[in-house]
Amino acid sequence: MNSVNREGAAASLAPRRRGIDSVELAGTILQAILRLDATFRLKDLEKATGINSATLYRYLVSLAQCGLVQRVEGGSRYTLGLLAFQLGQRAGQGNDLTSLVAPHVQEFSQRIGETCAIGLWFDQGATIVKWFEVNSAISISLRLGAELSVTGSSTARALAANLPRAATESIVRRELANAGRDAAELESVYRELEEIREAGIAQAIGTHIRGISSLSAPVFGHDGKVVLAIAVIGNQVTFNADLKGPIAAQLLQLSAQLSSYLGAGAGR
What we know:
Helices cover 46% and strands 19% of the residues. By secondary structure, the chain is of the alpha+beta class. The protein has 2 domains: 3-80, Winged helix-like DNA-binding domain superfamily/Winged helix DNA-binding domain (Arc Repressor Mutant, subunit A); 86-261, GAF domain (Beta-Lactamase, 2-Layer Sandwich), CATH 3.30.450.40. The radius of gyration is 23 Å and the shape is globular. The N and C termini lie far apart (76 Å). The model is unreliable at 1-16 (pLDDT under 50).
């Protein structure tokens, strides 16, 4: 046997590098989910993978617990979870809107001397995808990918205020229920969101993170729809979160400039 044949034979006999079988099976399931409709049933996934439904159910429970899938509220269907969207966002970060506006937000953060962040809305709610910290008396740790509260976070409110109610109501209802608040408060929340939409800016003073205040403004794309929000975050004691204050005025100006940059025009 010549050297080339010996090398080929050795390669064919080399053991397959061992990984974790359950992780590989989870990957197979996720790949099949990508080929299905946006929402799918367990039997759809069974047909797509050839894996029995009992096994698939256990995997879906685990995938849901880590945020890769979620059960559609009130039904027997599933869809991709927040973490899956966040991973997709990170994978495409080179050419997405976040990358386009990030240098402008970073410069703004340095200019005003306050921490700034970029928030996006996914099907499951709002989250921070990028943030810029400046040298300040307080170090604010923002957990990227954490779901933001529509009833507490200025970023989530700035986004929700500019989305159709159908896209946000189930999330608001869940938040109210989890907080032990009366469902009758739902309309009050939407009146606040309408006020935010009209003002073009949202405020939070210690409602999302104790001791922290924030201001957030939406940015619109070429079709006039909200695509992201810019937040300014600071110490509740020293940060001026007045909706009529100088930082709010500068943030509104930045949101108009970025909207124009993305093709929506400077005016709302």
